[in-house]
Amino acid sequence: MSAIKTEWLSNVKGDILAGIVVALALIPEAIAFSIIAGVDPMVGLYASFCIAVITAFIGGRPGMISAATGAMALLMVPLVKEHGVQYLLAATILTGVIQMVFGVCKVAKLMKFIPRAVMIGFVNALAILIFMAQVPHFVGISISTYLFVIATLIIVYVLPRFFKAVPAPLIAIIALTAVAIWGKVDIGTVGELGAITQALPSFLIPHVPFSWETLQIIFPYSISLAIVGLVESLLTASIVDDMTATESNKNREARGQGIANCITGFFGGMAGCAMIGQSVINVKSGGRGRLSTLVAGIFLMFLILVLGGLVVQIPMPVLAGIMIMVAIGTFDWSSFSYVRKAPKSDVIVMLTTVVVVVITDNLSIGVIVGVVLSAIFFAAKISRIHVEHDSINEADESINQDVVYRVKGQLFFASVEGFVDAFDYEVTNAKIVLDFTDAHIWDDSGVGAVDKAIIKFRAGGNDVLVRGLNDSSERMIHQLAVYRDPNAGLKSH
Amino acid sequence: MYSHLLLAADGSSNATRAAIAAANLISAMPECRVEVLYVIDPAKVKDEVLHAQNHEEIEYNRRQKLMPVQEELEKRHITYHITMINGEPGSAIVEYADQHEVDLIVIGSRGLNTLREFVLGSVSHNVVKRAHCPVMIIK
């Protein structure tokens, strides 16, 4: 009970003010992301309202803002184009179900397996895709289109230096929409791309046939949306954790995202997730508790009910300018020094993630390819095994002498080949020592490789001594090795 | 002379310069309590989280940034302690100084020209303008 009180009421004034600021900043983004997805602005606005309100109650990270996002919108494009918005709503519900299952399975723990190189690639690819989605809205249309984009960029970057109370993107929208209306500028508007309904969202069941075929269509999209939504949400939660020096429940967040998307789909909204940029705005504006997220959602809906009619008049290039700002803010600019300084394999993983996403237009494929690639790099790195060799008398190898091989590294299925080939089996009648002080034997293949090497040495009449095994390696050898049987031959392998 | 000195540090070379100057000053007032303050700037948190695998690594990277400052103080055998707080650097430093009865703030200046200061904003100017105690800016 006291936890509920702290999460909701410990920062009432700050939360309400920050929530209002976030709502103002959310409107342009919710509209722009709807346009990216190819649906009416209402789909993104309803989504932002529902998701914000629901996650306020059941999310795992107080103070984090979830709504319609660019990452999710980009994934929906082909679905909307080929099958229409009803399938998108069905996919949104299924996304929620998948995320709830993930949450119950404590999938947040898996996040630690996503290397930072993949996360850096993810945000960079996201920034590039958001930018590219804007290009058709301002390139080669008209001079006035370019002027509106430039004016927007100047307002959003310069104005916050002097005036911070109202988010600059909203000021750009209001000022430039006014200019377009009164100046009678001939320019593309939001209204040409979709309609605004000044009504609260209502419950509806998506108009799709309940069939196996429908599931086949929406499932690939839902699984992508579920993965990307959780990746971005959990990254955002970590950022908010760090900014506020508090901790949060990641599994509860995953479940909360799932419930939010599920309900949103039934209320005509598109799938969403946590937003890095808006959450940072919230915390910077003083938002800390659940109340800030709730206020953001409710105030957003209120504004649309009151001012919805004006939204259709917003010039498209102004939204494009705001999205360019979002893309610039999303991109990780320290990537340039990262590419120079980070280990080569990390850089390759990061760039591969970006390239795969840009080619496939699918962030989830990029994440999966990135994770697999870095796992391969990791396996390759850890499977490098070194065998150092010091012999007491290099010159004369034919007589009985001590040869010591020091094995360094991890001996398992991927490293056995390098291990067996590392020895010189030409030696005969020598006393050979295999020193495993700096090695660890992990599996049957490892034990088999030790057997193989020893039996090969014995074939040359050498005497082999194994030493320095750590306890768990010793146990493996004890249970599995055949070399302890003096009659063992290579045939047994 | 002063009883509680606050040395603002952000891991830049300006902060190291400030540490050298502060160390000279502190040597002359052995009774003074020395606090190194690192402000976690919300604008940089995204980068820091993105470039670290987990929370421990983020903290480690921040501690790493303070190493040059610590070295300068340790060279002069100065006892100090480190505090990390969240907030916009300028206002967070001032607020912290007010709350903890700091009587001298030492801070490095990036030496930005007029244009860059207009775009980026100057933390040290901000602190000078709003602090309620003496501020020493190290150029």
Automatic annotation (TrEMBL), chain A:
Gene3D superfamilies: STAS domain (3.30.750.24). The chain crosses the membrane at residues 16-36, 43-64, 84-105, 117-135, 141-159, 166-183, 218-237, 258-281, 293-311, 318-336, 348-379. It comes from the Bacteria. It is found in: Membrane. Pfam families: STAS (PF01740), Sulfate_transp (PF00916). It is a multi-pass membrane protein. Keywords: Membrane, Transmembrane, Transmembrane helix. Residues 403-493 form the STAS domain. InterPro entries: Membrane-Transporter-like, SLC26A/SulP_dom, STAS_dom, STAS_dom_sf. SUPFAM superfamilies: SpoIIaa-like. This is SulP family sulfate permease. It comes from Paenibacillus hunanensis.
From TrEMBL, chain B:
Belongs to the universal stress protein A family. InterPro entries: Rossmann-like_a/b/a_fold, Universal_stress_UspA, UspA. This is Nucleotide-binding universal stress UspA family protein. CDD domains: USP-like. Pfam families: Usp. It comes from Paenibacillus hunanensis. Residues 1-139 form the UspA domain. It comes from the Bacteria. Gene3D superfamilies: HUPs.
